[in-house]
Structure prediction request, 570 residues.
Amino acid sequence: MTSLKGIAASNGIAIAKAYRLVEPDLSFDKKTIDNPAAEIERFRLSMEKSKSELELIRKNAEENLGADKAAIFEAHLLVLSDPELIAPIEEQITNEKVNVEAALKETADMFVKMFEQMENEYMKERAADIRDVTKRVLSHLLGVQIVNPSMISEEVIVIAEDLTPSDTAQLNKQFVKGFTTDIGGRTSHSAIMARSLEIPAVVGTKTATAEIKNGDLVIVDGLKGEVHINPTPETVQQYQQVHLQYEAQKAEWAKLVNEKSVSADGFHVELAANIGTPKDLKGVKLNGGEAIGLYRTEFLYMGRDQLPTEEEQFEAYKAVLEGMEGKPVVVRTLDIGGDKELPYMNLPKEMNPFLGFRAIRLCLEEQDIFRTQLRALLRASLFGNLKIMFPMIATLDEFRSAKKILEEEKQKLIGQGQKVSEKIELGIMVEIPSTAVLADQFAKEVDFFSIGTNDLIQYTMAADRMNQRVSYLYQPYSPSILRLVKMVIDAAHSQGKWAGMCGEMAGDEIAIPLLLGLGLDEFSMSATSILKARSQIRNLSKADMEKLTGEVLNLQTTSQVIEAVKNATK
Prediction:
């Protein structure tokens, strides 16, 4: 048995065979061939295999992810049937007597370059389709399997270097029992999605893809952050017991599903959920969520080959608002950039994308995209308790500009006879230190704050949260972070406004006592963390936690803060 140590990213125990989700080696040599007819036959056979595969993927995508996601594969099927692509490849094989791999790649590269140089955005997007289709056909020619998370049909543990948000969104919980990656941390989007799906996960193992082969028996311990490869029968038995104990603990927490989130001395806080799609509502309700504290709308834009329409967005927002039956729903406007990319937008590569053209910065420049989203939100506002939140706000001018655009779209809709709710609260994510420092001024203009600690911590500590070598600086309990959080909460309360938190810190068992003591009004977390947090809060006295935070704000190090919290909550 081999064991790896990583970061516990999503609680639980999973035991299953390994499924490697690793990019295949599609390298080949250009060769001269003697029998062009046989080579063309090989090409056509690979094309047919690719069509059959894509038909199945399209069908699965439509059933599991919806018609919009399936449309990507419709486009790929069209490419496979396009004589403009097929004829030049067969001609090159016949005239130049080269192997099909070389003819396929040269022809595809020519079309990709041509499409990328076009002004029309729709035509530019076709370049990505050709790349994907070429990769699939090439894999069949070389006898190499392309992995596809949505095609998994048996119980497995996914092994990957990393998982993109769209990869994670395709994982079928029925079959994917857990996953482990080489890189990543608790705040990476794959980890956040794993918690939403209730899939045990260990990330940042460094060597999982090097050590684990397809079919190996793997245990993922999402409680301790350990991965065991080909364990002994005794180890498997021990972990089966740990799994049963954890499930029993979850059953105890489940008894609190309809209870209020109230401290031992009667102070009520709101425990809300972070979601990515309307499908996540089921988990929110099963876990007793009192609100949606963060609806990550970027997932509407990902895993597809074009921007969602206003109508598609309206239906998604309406579904969530209606589903929450009048409970608050905080919708974050498009937050693309950093580790979240949209290939079809062809945004320039940046040296440091986390500090670059992302979130509100992108929306204020690409106003057509922003206005479409705001119109959809305004139209949906009649169906529930909507609160709109702008991400990555660094200056008051940015907030005022975004608010002005929202107001313009609202007036246009009203002018067209469209009704819009008059009770929409407008807030910002506080994830940039400059905003936290100026929170007293922002509080005069916003309706609420939601503290995004995932980014606030990395910007305050000047440490990329995706970089393993500086991961020790991701310190949510640092006195410097706690002081910034206090500034934001105090600023909100001074103006009669509320302050929430939608970063992963909000569901952290060390942080919860401190946040309660600092006066946080709303804690928004992965839905699966809510009942555990509720159980913890019911055993804490807010008055005692206020005393605790008064002490820890004057401490010097994270380790001192952790020790103080543990001593105070024994």
Notes: The first strand starts at residue 2 and ends at 5. DSSP finds 22 helices and 16 strands in the chain. The longest helix spans residues 36-65.
